[in-house]
């Protein structure tokens, strides 16, 4: 029996990995919102092209995710995550010096490679390799920290943009990867199974059924679609429901705190229950919020934001904890990569699809995401604990 990891060492790993993932999210997923317009203006492009390059990056991340997961299963996550920091830095430097749209797209393709091996899926697989089925708590812990990526990333990107310019902001994020995130990932245990308790990460059980895998991939795909659609169009949706611009912005600001509050609930009370229970509750949150918004209009904007944010917060954790609980730790990383590949691709298309629906249907566009959320809930009800 290999000895348990001391609690203080576990806390250090969660803090280090959570912080490095915060940098990775802030310097990839969250920079277009601040830098896309100045980036496009300097190259004589429409911002649509920059967002298109970002969508391409998400498709690239979906393609490399299963490979990264398999690599982490076999050799542990430290090397993969450290490589992601170098790749992120290289992509950001290429963006910073890009003189043409061709190199801009090349820079985003490299960042997409970093996203495929350096975001939540890689972090979850790393923790599963260290802790086995006991990784639920650490997985929740890193999402609590990295949940502040937009809170940190948007203001910091905006500050660097205002002081120096968008190219220097990209160089700044590259430097943060090399000087902060890379050393933090170097603190992680070297391989899989370094520290385990009663449950070893290499334990193998019966192979999961194809139906269960398809259902879970569907759940992840539609919930990521909803999350990305709301991130891109929430103010417009709330205004279509009758909320003022000020109310729509204020309500949108509640999503982040609601996500963190829900993750704290998962870390505390809900950890006593099977992850399938909390995931079902979370999947129901968006459809309920949609009914409230359509029924009561603008005055329900705050309720909608709180319910959607809370559900999204737990669903992010469920991406890591539910496959671990249902299928075990053996082959977890590669399986997680395949389960999330459709989600990444649908996520790339979500802003365009929901934006077109909002333009054509107004508030009724919410029935698209509500219907998908209800379908995800039905799929989760079909799934069983074993």
UniProtKB/TrEMBL annotation:
One annotated GO molecular function is: transmembrane transporter activity
Q: Which Pfam families match?
A: MFS_1 (PF07690)
Membrane-spanning ranges: 12-36, 48-68, 80-99, 105-130, 142-165, 209-225, 237-262, 283-307, 313-333, 367-383
The protein's name: Putative MFS family arabinose efflux permease
Question: What residues does the Major facilitator superfamily (MFS) profile domain cover?
Answer: 13-386
Alphabetical keyword list: Membrane, Transmembrane, Transmembrane helix
SUPFAM superfamilies attached to this UniProt entry: MFS general substrate transporter (SSF103473)
Q: Per its UniProt record, what PROSITE patterns does this chain match?
A: MFS (PS50850)
What is the taxonomic lineage of the source species?
Bacteria, Pseudomonadati, Pseudomonadota, Alphaproteobacteria, Rhodobacterales
């Amino acid at each position: 029996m290999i000895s348990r990891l001391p609690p203080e060492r576990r806390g250090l790993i969660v803090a280090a990995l959570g912080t490095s993932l915060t940098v990775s999210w802030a310097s990839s997923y969250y920079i277009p919102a601040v830098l896309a317009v100045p980036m496009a203006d300097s190259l004589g492009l429409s911002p649509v092209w920059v967002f298109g390059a970002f969508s391409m990056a998400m498709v690239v991340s979906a393609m490399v995710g299963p490979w990264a997961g398999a690599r982490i299963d076999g050799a542990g996550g430290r090397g993969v995550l450290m490589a992601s920091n170098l790749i992120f830095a290289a992509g950001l430097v290429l963006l910073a010096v890009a003189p043409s749209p061709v190199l801009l797209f090349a820079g985003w393709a490299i960042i997409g490679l970093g996203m495929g091996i350096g975001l939540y899926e890689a972090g979850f697989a790393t923790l599963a390799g260290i802790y086995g089925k006991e990784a639920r708590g650490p997985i929740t812990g890193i999402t609590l920290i990295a949940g502040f990526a937009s809170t940190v990333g948007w203001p910091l990107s905006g500050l660097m943009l205002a002081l120096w310019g968008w190219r220097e902001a990209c160089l700044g994020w590259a430097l943060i990867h090399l000087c902060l995130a890379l050393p933090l990932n170097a603190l992680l245990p070297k391989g899989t199974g370094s520290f385990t308790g009663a449950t070893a990460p290499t334990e193998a059980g019966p192979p999961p059924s194809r139906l269960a895998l398809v259902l879970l991939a569907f759940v992840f795909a539609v919930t990521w679609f909803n999350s990305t659609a709301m991130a891109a169009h929430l103010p417009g949706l709330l205004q279509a429901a009758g909320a003022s611009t000020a109310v729509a912005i204020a309500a949108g600001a509640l999503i982040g705190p609601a996500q963190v509050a829900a993750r704290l609930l998962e870390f505390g009370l809900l950890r006593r229950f099977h992850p399938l229970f909390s995931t079902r509750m979370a999947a129901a949150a968006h459809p309920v919020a949609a009914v409230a918004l359509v029924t009561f209009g603008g005055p329900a904007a705050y309720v909608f934001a709180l319910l959607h944010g809370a559900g999204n917060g737990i669903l992010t954790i469920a991406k890591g904890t539910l496959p671990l609980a249902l299928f075990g730790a053996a082959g977890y990383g590669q399986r997680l990569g395949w389960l999330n590949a459709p989600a990444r691709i649908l996520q790339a298309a979500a802003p365009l699809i929901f934006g077109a629906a909002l333009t054509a249907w107004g508030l009724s566009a919410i029935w698209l995401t509500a219907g998908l959320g209800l379908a995800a809930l039905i799929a989760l009800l079909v799934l069983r604990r074993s």
